[in-house]
Design brief:
single chain, alpha+beta, 1 helix
Length: 65
């Protein structure tokens, strides 16, 4: 699966390296493994969007402190 970077929005490229697999942004080099899921398998689009929204809320709360 390929995703957009949660930091800058650039299309990310998957980097397959066993347990260290995930996506890497070619623009800002942010790494993310949200789409890799866990024992339950890959996450669907709605779950990924929810994770992204929750991270954004957390980031905004940190900025307000």
């Amino acid at each position: 699966m390929r995703c957009s970077c949660q930091k800058c929005g650039t299309y990310m490229v998957q980097n397959e390296k066993g347990l260290d697999s995930g996506c890497i942004c070619p623009e800002c080099f942010t790494k993310c493994s949200a789409c890799m899921g866990g024992e339950e398998g890959p996450l669907d689009k709605d779950s990924l969007r929810m994770i992204a929204l929750l991270r954004e809320v957390d980031r905004l709360r940190e900025d307000d402190m």
